[in-house]
Amino acid sequence: MGSSAPDSPTKNEATAGVTHARGDGGASLRVTREGHGRVVALTGAHSFLGSNLVGLLEEDPRTQRIVALDVEPPATRGKKTRVYPLDLTDPKADTRLAEILAAERVDTLVHLAFLSEPSFASAWAHELESVGTRHTMVAARHAQVTKVVLWSQTLLYGAHPTNPNFLTEKHPLRAPRKESFFADKIEAEAEVSRFADRVPGSVVTILRTAPLLGPTVKNYLTRYLSHRLVPTMMGFDPLLQFLHEVDAIAAFKLAIDRTMPGTFNIVADGVLPLSTVIKLAGRIATPIPHPIAETATAIAWMAQVADAPPSFLKYLRFLCVADGKKAWDTMGFRPAYTTREALLDFTNAQRLRDVHLLQEPTP
Amino acid sequence: MSATFDDDDNGPESLSPSVVDGDPGRSYPAEPEDEIEEAPRSRAALSEAEVAAKIRSLEERLDEMIGNADDLPLEDIPPPPPSRFASAKALTPEPDATVFDTARELLSSEFYLRKWGRLGMRNRSEEVDDFGFDPVYEKKVQPIFDFLYERYFRVECEGVDGIPAEGRCLLVANHSGTLPYDGMMIKTAVKREHPQRRDVRWLAEDFLFHFPFLGSFTNRVGAVRACQENAERLLQQESLTAVFPEGVKGIGKLFKKRYQLQRFGRGGFIKLALRTKSPIIPVAVIGAEETNPMLYRIDYLSQAMGIPFIPVTPTFPLLGPLGLLPLPTKWRIVFGDPISFASHGPEAADDEMLVGRLADQVRSSIQTMLDRAVKQRASVWLG
User: Fold this and answer.
1) Chain B contacts of A157, Cβ < 8 Å?
2) Which residues contact B380 (CB under 8 A, 6 or more apart)?
3) Three-state secondary-structure class, residue B342
4) Higher pLDDT, B311 or B306
5) What is the distance between the alpha carbons of residues B244 and A345, in angstroms, rounded to a whole number?
6) Is B212 close to A164, i.e. CB distance below 8 A?
7) Closest partner residue to A279 among B117, B206, B230, by Cβ?
8) pLDDT tens across B37-93, in order?
9) What pTM value is reported for the model?
10) Which residues of chain B are at the A interface, by a Cβ-Cβ cutoff of 8 Å?
């Protein structure tokens, strides 16, 4: 497993190059089956990305049908959407998913069933992310779905003092493997890469998004920045990079609409030091010496009162910034928001939330 | 403002020609009443002297009006029209706010949070460049570098004009002095002495970024972690980049080996220059070797601490952290003539033999510059 993850993007790299040479700028529109339009299935359709994509695809005339797969139906479903309750942690999920995919004649599968923040129930998270991806890929192969879009994250590169300032897609995924939040996602990516290798004619797009930030998205990062006192590691001020939620959704739409095999970093332009991020968010940084913080977080995580496990503290000390050049050149992805604008957009909404002026439905 | 209230019958009239003509620039001097009707006709014939005379008369009138306004009793001035932006008024402090209001504001936590946020941003810019360089922060700490450069090390700079005014360029320097001050001094030298005041980005060792404070500080003032990807990206952005091919071997050499260049890595900087078609300027830094003369090096303990070595200097473990302060040696930075590799194509980077030969050529030119400068030097402290 360890060796397959770094190798697989390189293979996809090669295929991407071929497409790039053939269709001008890789922008060739996908020729859809039967000429009626695309049939898109989304796992994790109730998630932030899932429900937004359902809404977006619903408005697109090129979409014939949307197959929403999740334990709960997305609120954005419309006339074109068909909702199937599906729990990927169910051992028989692969058979059921294969049946659905075949019956609906799905041509594009978007796999988004990943947790947006670390969970205390790590065994369940493993079933959902790692084993769930396996179920999904088995079902896709069985139902002869060839186009797969996978959500991955730049976090998986890992924060290391030896990272170059901009990590390209060729860089190995070095996030701490002992942390299930990262390990499961790395396994999922390897699983999808194996699918790309084995299935002839498959078009697999892996989008590694930078940490999402925006007025409506909720994840470990928005939780971190919503505290009045934000813990930082004393003496460390790494550069951070975000992605606005709108840009993330746009990138997935782009990947669904076009044929672009390969792995892409989906990131916003620009970087900000952590201390500036906290200042712009109107919070107060509380520097803690990192050995103390690690011990304290480990205890708090075990007691289930911490937001994130201690392995996340590495991201407060070292660089983990990805290079979005390949997505810019090959996909034609142009982020509308810079890192700073994404942060300010989040901050504006968070200010209203702080004074209870923003009413939101509880998820 | 009071002038307009003084004789507002002049206002609309004087404005009218400019509005009609749609040429406010030309008709502006034609303000006095007696000239208004003639203005459009004679405008083309206006000579410079006439314009000057009109401006002068206007100025006189203005002075007169201002003088009148001063004589006016304050009560006669009508109050300004109420602002449409009531909120803007609310922001300005109320004149009749009591001392209690002020005290209440001072006691509220919101006030301090607001101030904290504002003060926190005062010495940093809201955006840093791709590699974390913060120009506002750099300006703030520049006096420290200036002090080190001017007073402490009394750096003498030679041949800085050889650095091109723009475009990518690779500075290759010897590395010395246990603690890497040389990067900062090269940066300060170019910033102060070069006609274009170019910013040098220098590549710093990995271990610097393990450290608290040191890593983020050097990053904010322009250092970047030394690796091929970063260097290539910097040069592609047409920046002036300084590298120390000796790396840790250079700063970690013992005092007895001073001014002897160590192995130049594996010629990475040559490959870099070939691939990015950048000229190389050899740089010799003299004086840094003696700042923290390392007599002995402890390697075995340092592994656990994430640093390459623990130095033993005449002062270091003895005086505690104070012993790490550099000695005030006299420095000299010599910039050599640019070496261009444009005759070799970028594919030459794969030719290991050629890379080795070119690396040796650069290395020997720096060694020559070092030897010459050390020989010329009479005293370590006075130069």
Assistant:
1) none
2) B287, B290, B329, B330
3) coil
4) B311
5) 42
6) no
7) B117
8) 444 444 555 677 888 888 899 888 888 877 776 665 555 555 554 444 444 444 444
9) 0.78
10) 113, 116-117, 120-121, 124, 126-128, 130-132, 134, 206, 209-216, 219-220, 224-225, 227-230, 233
